[in-house]
Amino acid sequence: MTKRLNSWHSRHLSFGGRITLINSVLASIPLYFFSFFRAPCCVLKSIEKIQRNFLWGGGAEERKVCWVKWDQICLPKEKGGLGVKNLELFNLALLSKWKWRFLNHDNAIWADLLRYCYGHLPSLLLSGIDITPSAHSSLWWRDIISLGRGMSDSWFKSNISCCVGNGNSIGFWQFKWYGNQAFCDLFPDLYAKEAIKNVMVSERLRGNGLVPLWRWNWSESLSVNEAQQLTELQGLFDGFSLHDNNHDQWRWIPDSNGLFTVKSCYTYLLDLRKVELQDAHVLEAIQRLWKSDVPSKVNVFGWRLLLNRLPTRAALHHRGILTNHHELSCVFCFQQAEDENHLFFSCPFSKGVWNKVLSWLGTSLQTGVKGRDHFLLFGDLFKMKDKGRVRYLVWLATTWNIWNLHNKVIFKGNIPDVSSLLETIKLHSWLWFTSRYGRRSCTPFPFWCLNHMSCIMST
Asked: Dihedral through CA 410, CA 414, CA 420, CA 425, nearest 10?
């Protein structure tokens, strides 16, 4: 992985390009090993460090400032993240597929070998009894059996439901096969006197007619109270029958088709992990943002802006990078400390830019609105349900170019000018629009400047 990174120069890649490379290449390099072995924590941390440094513009060993927590970056985009894979959970999801195979590949040769070494596989996975691998068990088997320890030990078996056929593979007492509770929990007194704790359904219940035939094997005689419980238990099965010609089947609950997929398992594990979620209004703004048809680097910039995670002077001071209080003033007005709300919405220069932009659009916006509220209100100006991909095009072009000018003022000594910035905003928004819709709408730049709404409606 380090060798692969040495051939890339993250500083010359956009933020969106780095995310694509992380998901498509860096997360795929260890895929084969993750699907068979449980990765040690030190390995996961090393790979995560490489990915994190590369994402924020550094090399394999060069460390950069991380502006957003890695746990949040690993969240799906609709939940406020960037969709980068959490390698620990991805490793668990890949290994969990072996558990699903244990249940569904009974006729495989490797399943016969595991059954010979360790016993009945469904009972080991789905029974309510805590399984502790012996010292003689293989390292691979111990990793598979102990998956999820420390999270919620029952997360896998709680998402498996039984579809009873002939009853040869489903444990009568320990499995949740008839109702939402195992019979060992519903009738603990009867289970205590059961001679064979892991007995199968077909060994206790027979008959395919209206009246089931029972074959019990107790370690000692039942008391009067236990006999009443047995009558109650047997009464639950009036009209129930096994199907001798059908095999028992298993259903993966998180997937609508009932089939196990690594994706559905990973999503479930991600939801199981407790991560601090964003405010509902911020999430709504981010969900709208990702629908925008602009370059990926601009979408990521908008995501950071909505989260207040841009390296403004106030943010750099908060992290101890800027220590001189005289360096905290806004680069445009030199009147207030430079944070996201001031730089993009409250600064007199930025207000002048927004006034020019809104005048160009032929509309107006409520004054004093900042951040995510400004973003949402700007989108509401365009009452077009089917134009979500271009609704925030101009908003992103404006904030993107304000930020670029901010950097040019600091590093190149450019002089801020509202009129020239407005022309740059028009140009960028036109370029983004035509690059996405040029084949369907040949829009000359002068026409875009005169009536951009007509151009959007023509797509």
From this structure: -30
Q: Is the pLDDT of residue 112 over 70?
A: yes
The Cα-based distances of 287 to 341, 352, 369, 393 in angstroms read: 20, 28, 20, 15
Q: Report which residue type is found at 313.
A: R
Q: Which of 151, 102, 108 is nearest to 125 (CA)?
A: 102
The amino acid at residue 114 is: L
Asked whether 424 and 401 are in contact (CB, 8 A), the reply is yes
Radius of gyration of the chain (CA): 31
Measured CA to CA, the distance from residue 286 to residue 262 in angstroms comes to 26
Helix (H) or strand (E) holding 213: strand 213-214
Query: What's residue 379's pLDDT?
Result: 84
Please provide the DSSP assignment of 10-66 as one string.
GGGS-HHHHHHHIIIIITTTTHHHHTTSPPPHHHHHHHHHHHHHHHTT--SS-----
pLDDT one-digit tens code per residue, 321-349: 888 888 889 999 998 999 999 999 999 99
Task: Record the pTM.
Answer: 0.82
Q: Please report, to the nearest 10 degrees, the dihedral formed by the alpha carbons of residues 267, 165, 120, 40 taken in order.
A: -10
pLDDT classification of 90: cutoffs 50, 70, 90: very high
Read off the tokens for 127: 């029974």
- Rounded Cα distance between 212 and 200, Å, is 15
Which pairing describes strands 160-163 and 213-214: parallel, antiparallel, or unpaired? unpaired
For 205, the 3-state DSSP assignment is strand
